[in-house]
Design brief:
single chain, 149 residues, alpha+beta, four-stranded antiparallel beta sheet, 4 strands, 54% helix, 10% strand, Hsp70_NEF-Inhibitors
Length: 149
């Protein structure tokens, strides 16, 4: 759905909907706290008004969001049923991680996931046997892995 130029647009991670809000007042003066509290986002896909500052949603808003999620899930399943060849094609290109681990073990190589590496780094950092340099190195490595996540 088209939105006016200068609108604030965001993706609501709770509902999966894109939302747009008209820009703040044109005259340049900042809104009062009460006016900001009343500002509402309007769902670009017709979700309706959602109060951004509220910690809870009305049952109506939750029902609409859930219905939209179910609709998109049904559409996704329909696509899978209509185009099973595409899914098989993807499955042929990629192998399960368990199979990859077995193949690497046969080559005497140990494959670790990022999670497994991060757990080892945390235990190295927490270990009293580790030197200060080892702990610093573990923190640098952890920073790299956490940044990826």
């Amino acid at each position: 759905q088209a939105v006016p130029a200068g609108s604030h647009v965001r993706l609501n991670l709770q509902t999966g909907e894109r939302e747009a809000k008209l820009p703040d007042s044109e005259n340049g003066r900042s809104d009062t706290r009460e006016e900001r509290r009343r500002k509402r986002y309007r769902g670009a896909a017709g979700l309706g008004k959602v109060d951004v500052d509220a910690n809870s949603f009305t049952s109506q808003e939750l029902k609409k969001a859930l219905a939209k999620m179910k609709e998109s899930e049904k559409a996704e399943r329909k696509v899978r049923r209509e185009f099973p060849a595409q899914e098989e094609e993807v499955r042929k290109k990629f192998r399960p991680i368990e199979q990859l681990k077995e193949e690497f073990e046969k080559m005497n190589m140990k494959m670790e996931t990022d999670y497994e590496i991060m757990v080892k780094l945390i235990s190295k950092f927490n270990s009293s046997a580790s030197t200060l340099d080892e702990k610093v190195a573990a923190l640098y490595d952890l920073e790299y892995y956490v940044h990826q996540v």
